[in-house]
Design a protein that fits this description.
It is globular and about 60 Å long. About 40% of the residues are buried. It is of the alpha/beta class. The strands form seven sheets. A six-stranded antiparallel β-sheet has the order 22-23-26-25-24-27, sandwiched between helices. Strands 3-2-1-7-19 form a five-stranded parallel β-sheet. A five-stranded parallel β-sheet has the order 9-16-10-11-12, covered by helices on one side. The protein has three domains: about 180 residues, 3-Layer(bba) Sandwich (FAD/NAD(P)-binding domain); about 110 residues, FAD/NAD(P)-binding domain (3-Layer(bba) Sandwich), CATH 3.50.50.60; about 100 residues, no CATH class.
Length: about 425
């Protein structure tokens, strides 16, 4: 049997390794459109900062690893999927037959509709080739404009700071990381960034970019500035356009069932491009984060290998290191209509925690500078652990998460554990 995996990021590679562990004699072809070995895009900011070299981004570093695993690496872009013929048409004019196919094509950057966005000094930060171009332009003292203060934008800041760039960050929304953090957490992250010397402009729209001595940026308020480099960090979308006309049902991403199987026989999807059912939020969602890609790659690989395995949960956890300040977002962090919340804030110590409840369940959270119980938060949210009397206790004292976890998820007696944060409390 031949398994063809489109996309050689974390989801695709984990699926290939899972299939190989179960099906020793099957053919496995891993198709990627970059000439480099499979790597993690999340490592690119660390490459830019100088913390690692290019090899440090590779997902598997052992010499001869793919040959030893009998995973064929194919450099090509898939142009078309023909389900009736069980073939993939590649951009080099060849065709590739499959018995089972996994779509693990990840995401692609969103291109803002801004005149001049295609100028040579305007760069996305998505591939190793992008990183090379950014490193050539982001010299010490370079004036850098970063468009977007979301997940990628926040982890890029440290790289620019380490390179000695003069960084201005522009975000159209009213706060930083608007798709992950509420007002309280976002305000704390912004204060920290500004303390580190980053200029942050929220609620600011870029009107156009034009060539000048460098690049002239014109903003909606009429102000103009010149920059040596403009970095696009304006979000991503699932990479599924090549599936048009294939019969694979897509919404935002590829619609999959509990086995990560698409609407077509023998075609699966995993990672950033898959839209899977999530019991916690009662919806089909795309979660464009590496932990989710790894989880779904493993489950898709098991199903493709003939071992029926179900998933009912889409991992929704984001952990960001913004210039040394760690923040986290879990589940339905924005809350739900009729829900309750509890909040702790200590601006002086840069610590913040907000818990969101729906009835007797913890459904989401934001935290900043408070990392002691990330695993506990994830367990309570993803496993929908009934809180019982602990719901009211957490509304009064959110820092008692560990005690709630031991009592509700582990069945242990209430223990007099010290509160994790001696800070002011506010409950809805």
């Amino acid at each position: 049997m031949r398994h063809v995996i489109i996309g050689n990021g974390p989801a695709g590679l984990i699926a290939a390794e899972t299939i190989r562990a179960q099906r020793h004699d099957d053919e496995i072809v891993l198709v990627g459109d970059e000439s480099s070995p499979p790597y993690s895009r999340m490592a690119i900011p660390y490459l830019l900062s100088g913390a690692i070299d290019e090899r440090g981004t590779w997902l598997r570093k052992e010499p001869g690893y793919y040959e030893a695993q009998r995973i064929e690496l194919r450099v090509a872009r898939v142009a078309k999927l023909d389900a009736s013929a069980h073939t993939l048409s590649l951009d080099d004019g060849t065709r590739l037959e499959y018995d089972r196919c996994l779509i693990a094509t990840g995401s692609v950057p969103v291109l803002p509709p801004v005149p001049g966005i295609d100028l040579p000094a305007v760069q996305p930060c998505w591939t190793l080739a992008d990183a090379d171009r950014i490193m050539a332009l982001a010299a010490k003292g370079a004036r850098v404009l970063q468009l977007g203060a979301g997940f990628i934008g926040c982890i890029l800041m440290e790289a620019m700071a380490r390179r000695g760039a003069k960084l201005t960050v522009v975000e159209m929304e009213s706060r930083m990381v608007p798709r992950m953090m509420g007002e309280g957490a976002a305000a704390m992250i912004r204060a920290w960034c500004e303390k580190q010397g980053v200029r942050v402009l929220t609620g600011t729209r870029l009107e156009s970019l034009a060539p000048a001595d460098a690049v002239r940026a014109v903003f909606a308020d009429g102000s103009k500035e010149e920059f040596d480099l403009v970095i696009r960090a304006t979000g991503v979308r699932p990479n599924v356009e090549f599936l048009e006309g294939s019969g694979v049902e897509c919404d935002l991403g590829v619609i999959v069932d509990e086995h990560l199987r698409s609407s077509l026989p023998d075609v699966y999807a995993a990672g950033d491009c898959a839209q899977a059912w999530d019991d916690a939020s009662h919806a089909r969602i795309v979660s464009a984060i590496q932990p989710n890609a790894v989880d779904q790659g493993r489950i898709a690989g098991l199903n493709m290998a003939g071992l029926p395995t179900e998933t009912h949960c889409v991992t929704q956890i984001n952990v960001i290191d913004t210039m040394g300040l760690v923040s986290c977002s879990f589940g339905q962090w924005q809350g739900v209509s009729g829900g309750e919340h509890a909040e702790l804030a200590d601006p002086q110590r840069l610590r913040y925690l907000r818990l969101e409840f729906d009835g007797n369940l913890l459904i989401g959270a934001n935290s900043v500078g408070w990392t002691e119980h990330i695993g506990v938060l994830r367990n309570l949210v993803e496993n929908r652990v009934p809180l019982g009397k602990w719901k009211e206790r957490l509304l009064r004292e959110p820092s008692r998460l560990m005690q709630a976890y031991l009592a509700c998820a582990q069945g242990q007696e209430d223990r007099a554990l010290p509160a994790a944060m001696g800070v002011p409390r506010r409950a809805a």
